[in-house]
UniProtKB/TrEMBL annotation:
NCBIfam families: Ac_CoA_lig_AcsA, PRK00174.1. This is Acetate--CoA ligase. The keyword Mitochondrion does not apply. Belongs to the ATP-dependent AMP-binding enzyme family. GO terms for molecular function: acetate-CoA ligase activity. Its EC number is 6.2.1.1. It is an enzyme of class 6 (ligase). Residues 89-475 form the AMP-dependent synthetase/ligase domain. The gene is acs.
Amino acid sequence: MRQEKKQVTDISDRPVIRNLADVDPVRAQQVAALRAHALSDPEAFWLEQAQRIDWATFPTAASAASFDGDVSIRWYEDGTLNASVSCLDRHLETRGDQPALIWQADDAAVSRTLTFRELHAEVCRLANALRGLGVKRGDRVAIHLPMVVEGVAAMLACARIGAIHVVLFGGFSPEGIGERLIDSGAVAVITCDFSRRGAKRIPHKTTVDAALAHAGTIGAVKNVIVVQVTGDAVPMTEGRDHDYTTLVSPQETECAPEIMRAEDVLFLLYTSGSTGKPKAMVHATGGYMVWAACTTDWTLSPQPGKIHWCTADIAWITGHTYVVYGPLLSGTTTLIYEGLLGWPQPGRWWDIVDRYQVSCLYTAPTAIRALMRDGDDVPREYSLASLERLACAGEPISPDAWEWFYTVIGQQRCPVADMWWQTETGGGMLCVIPGAQPMKPGWATTPLPGLSAVLTNEKGEIIEGATEGALCFTQSWPGQARTIWGDHKRFRETYFTFSPGKYFAGDGARRDENGYYMITGRMDDVINVSGHRIGTAEIEDALATCHSVSEAAAVGINHDLKGQGIVVFVVARSAKVAPPVDELSRVICERVGRYAAPERIYLVKDMPKTRSGKIVRRLLRKIASGETENLGDLSALADPAVIPALIAAVGEQTITG
Ligand code: WTA
């Protein structure tokens, strides 16, 4: 049965601001007090927030961070802890028999529920197995798994023994995985036979084998643990490969947690930047856990006994913070779903919501757009009455997608937390605190307590008031990435030189007269395809390996479903031999990943370049989007005659497909 819609009263004179009927004055006041405290005494505020997690030794000081000079970010330095204790052990006495993790298989008839006690035991067994294989504190362990119980257990088992987890996306190519195994120096990989993607089977084990062959003798991987997900036979290398169940089931169900310093690394997570080389953001144990706890609580209000479903893959930062660490440390039940959106039928997600009585649904705008396309009748066949909170992150959400999510899924009863954040930030940064402030569709709203967001102009100077500029933060926060693994110089240069002394997020934003922020998109060469960050250089570097290509430039264009799509311009090495477009696309998928498949590839004679030889992507973007009327000032181009030729080439090739 559909719930009757709650009347939403709009007490604002700006109709665009949606006031929740239940903005609670007491909650609003509490949050205002919290913000004021963070401003007046940050040290005390952050130490207070640290109490949200369990410590072996509680820290005596909060921040020792500086964005100046060499940039050094440290939090809670004399504190010691183990992250898995806050997620598991702390609950054993009070709610050991409550569900911690629900796994819904692709097959609707198959699911598995683990209580906190059971998850604790599974994590300890795997942790003991890893120790038995010689994995030590500080070692890197790569995890290459789909959404299965073992993926969550693997992250926590690494944390248990102080090993650093490096979760790799299932869609990465063998080259991509190999490169990351070398860069991280991983000593072990936890993978599976195959994963399921609708009717397809995605090979994991053979991909890892190929990646290891690619990593060759430089790689440090000594052990590969293979989970049976589909049960299909896969080649096993004697002495290196181990079957998960055979290895793990005989182990002890207790494992003493390794006591870590707050600044010891909890995990590395790869993300894309302006250059082709993937970068691993380094997250430290204490601060990350505190920030996961704060942001989960403020924005999602998780509660023990309720079901929290964040649809993100564990290979993304959202999966780390809002599938695993945030929900588990708050004692709520986290649900993971192995399958695809809308598979095998469009209402699959809503079936899961009703079946498990999901209370909080956290997803990405790209999924919301896809769900919207199925029409309102699909969700209307379900009750969805259990939903209390909605959230989304990963890319800008348009006001109409927001409205649809709020109205059709949330039935105007559930606040929508549009959370802006990044792999680099560890947890949510700009987000409405539901109940304490009005929402505004399409706007990520305000910085969370303790954060110091500013906008700057192109020169990096702070600009005030209702305006638009580059989003920066003047002060550190506990969840901030500490560095780029093995490349602190790149960290400093990427994030702290645009506006010295400030963290530059790489996004542009607009600010309204109420101090609400709306993200306008990336200001660097990063394309966001369905929430996947892809550096244009990753695509260009992949194409540089093709002998037939002389030059390539990738740009992002608007895409109805994916948010952004990729368009690639290619100049052939020889005017006589045109590189086959299918082949170029295949190379991109192989080297970068399937998710980087371009929408279109145009063969062109010349690129628009400045006199110093830099490709002017702005023009390529406009031409690819068909915005050829208003190309702006072309006087900086070395050869303006390139432009009409480009427009003609694009026109011809688009028509002929
Ligand atoms: C974009 C994902 C608008 C942004 C959590 C950012 C968003 C990049 C939002 C980080 C949002 C993320 N509104 N844009 N609510 N959330 N973004 O590292 O461009 O995969 O810089 O982290 O996604 O992507 P990442």
